[in-house]
Amino acid sequence: MNPLAALPVLRWLIRDTFRQSINAGVFWLMLALILACVVLCLTVSVVDAPDSSGHLDLGFGAVQLSLAPGRGVAVRTLEGYLAGWIADGAGLLLTLMWTASILPSFLDEGTSSVLLVKPIPRWILLLGKCLGAITFVLVQDTLFLGGTWLALGISTGIWDITYLCCLPLLLLHFIVFFSFSAMLATATRSTTACVFGSILFWLLSWATNLGRHAFLALPELQAAAADLGHGVELAYWILPKPLDCHLILTGILQIDSPLSRVFNAQPLTEHGAWQPAASLLASSLCAVLLMALAAYDFATAEY
């Protein structure tokens, strides 16, 4: 069929996903959480001290955090927590739990049968619904990063444009795990399976990524790594790599975090095991494969 003929359908599916998020109250819930973070960032102040005992105040001094000296470093460290733990941690899990219901409801016979009578390939219908979920997350991530960046700039006078460069990485991280949820949706048509399955897959990927780096970065575990052979390495390259995503994000911001201190790039580089570009490419290929499996399952399903 003419690809241009599918564009109105894709636009409708994307709009329908946003309508679904608004009717379910998810859009407003996410927006409220974003506004809360923005307001919190407006209360931030950085106190420098000659003896390097400076600190960062939240809530107009209600909470005091001891961070690295220097206004720029302190603000960037806070940005690392916002992007690396709130957006890429809690935010990812929240969006996975909500988007887990999008495809099962769409694939229900009563809903999908109306669209299936149209002369449009099924994979395009699935693509449109997935694009709706991805666009929803893109909007939410953009509002979060843009709003907190603007608030921190106003409250501290530090306008760190590097913070906004985290957006593509956050979106890619979501797409990788959403693709697994999409595969479960076409296979089971169950929202429960998608919610728990995608979270368990996320935990499994974290454990594999963490275990592989621990074997290589911590000397006391290197002997055990030899006994495990190539199994851990194979699993590492097959599965998504959420820890790598976190380390790349902290590397972009040039900050330290608890995980980056333990699994810093130097020991991994010495083993030839730290390849950020290859890691992101492998995770992207994993997402493509999972989405292809979901599209094939949907295309061959009987309605």
Model description:
This protein has 303 residues and is mostly helical. It has one domain (3-300). It is built from 14 helices and three strands. The chain has helices spanning 3-23, 26-42, 71-99, 102-107, 109-116, 122-156, 167-188, 191-217, 219-228, 231-238, 242-253, 258-262, 265-270, 276-300; strands at residues 45-47, 55-58, 63-65. It has a three-stranded antiparallel β-sheet, covered by helices on one side. Strand 1 and strand 2 form a beta hairpin. Helix 3 packs parallel to helix 7 and helix 6 (122-156) runs antiparallel to helix 14 (276-300). The longest helix is centred in the middle third of the chain and has 35 residues, at 122-156. The model has no long low-confidence stretch (mean pLDDT 84).
The shape, in one word, is: globular
Helix content: over 70%
Judged by helices, strands and strand pairing, the structural class is mainly alpha
In the predicted model, the low-confidence regions spanning at least 5 consecutive residues are: none
Distance between the termini: 22 Å
Number of helices: 14
Count of separate structural domains: 1
The pLDDT mean sits at 84
The fraction of residues in strands falls at under 5%
Largest sheet: 3 strands, antiparallel
